[in-house]
Amino acid sequence: MAAPKTLLVLENFINGKFVPCSSYIDSYDPSTGDVYCRVPDSGKEEVEIAVTAARDAFLSWSSKSLQERSQIMNKLADLIEHDLEAFAQAESKDQGKTITFARTVDIPRAAYNFRFFASSILHHTTECTQMDYMDCMHYTVRTPVGIAGLISPWNLPLHLLTWKIAPAIASGNTVIAKPSEMTSVTAWMMCKLLGRAGIPPGVVNIVFGTGPKAGEAIVSHPEVPLISFTGSTLTAQHIKERSAPHWKKLSLELGGKNPAIIFEDANLDQCIPTTVRSSFANQGEICLCTSRIFVQRSIYNEFLKRFVEETRKWKVGSPSDPTVSMGAMISKEHLEKVKNYVKKARAEGARILCGEGVDSLALPTGNQNGYFMLPTVIAEVKDESCCMQEEIFGPLTCVVLFDTEEEVIKRANGVKYGLAATIWSSNVGRVHRVAKRLQAGLVWTNCWLVRELNLPFGGMKASGIGREGAKASYEFFTEVKTITIKH
Ligand code: NAD
Q: Which of 95, 219, 232, 330, when mutated, tests ligand 1's pocket best, judged by the most ligand atoms within 8 Å of its CB?
């Protein structure tokens, strides 16, 4: 009999030290279905200790010069980049994403988040105005808020956690961060680098565990005045209620049901591969992924044929195989949930054009128990269908046809979400008209996921409250004060 494999055991990182927890939860490798790691099941007690550490570290950290904080953050970026391959391997194993995606997107961006905020923090200005008739001068100052509670999801684990930690500490706050209990490994690996980068004990504390225990303890703690959360709309609603009695500052980055609108003058050679990518990148587990594709009638048949052909080229398999386009989905439950949407669509009379239930999925021997699904395209779905209304967050996209600009704007806006949208057209006037009227925090034209970190990121309606980005994050992670001087 083969000896049992040793499990990786993570520890909380509080006050600059790794500390064990009294209980642990299992974490699975999505590509095999095996438990491979144990994650601390922290709760109120661990969060209380982290709050004490963050409180004690605040005065010294917030008093450091911007240049000093910036240098430390650049050093941390260097260290992550130095270990990029180890981080990428770990992210791919923990989340199920392809090694290629982890190597080219997640980890480079995690390092860049520190580099970006290390630079942007040096360039903000405050306001000043004079009131001569009163002999007064007014100006604003910005100060860090205090202890920031940062909670992130499982789809882009280190990328999204560092997108919060970096602006929080650059602005002079100390933090208590909690990654998803399903993808905690890279955050734990990063803790090993914090001291080497020069981040003092207590400035970054990472408490691992579930939402209802560890997450809830952070959100409900009266000494944590600010919560930055990325995750589902349902959890955000709960966080909002829990935070309300404490008047916490909230930034909520939530789900989407993102449309792509493809007009008859679109360049299909660019549009089709990009829309396949926008639908299925990272197994469709990106909040910005396209899940409703509106195609104008005159090009509908051609688009559909070519889109399905292109989708079928995407290979699904072991995340460590560099030729694979899609790896495993995060969990067995999530896989079942996404497959259920396909069943519902079929029951409603929609056509499943490729993928789940249509094509066969051949997996390597070691991956037979992993959580895999083929990229799936559905057509002839009604706008009222749950597949067109609810966030599915998996490799499933719906294609429907439209006739007029006015009609498609109304239908694209006809969901509760408002995160991102994509327009494909070569008519500049139309692009401006449509982009302005779409209810989405981000609109890409003739491209997808081209990010400019200086500009605001976030959603409207049920997709969130607040924006992130250089200036937006700085404003969120600081308090502003107006000072008036009479002379
Ligand atoms: P989730 O809401 O289930 O969990 C997100 C985080 O919140 C996890 O760390 C979880 O442990 C924690 N949590 C859960 N319950 C909690 C509670 N009661 N109190 C405090 N914390 C709690 O979301 P998920 O399934 O991990 O992630 C997928 C969702 O995230 C999707 O809806 C996706 O669209 C969204 N998302 C949004 C963005 C964006 O920038 N808008 C980016 C990525 C993902």
A: 232
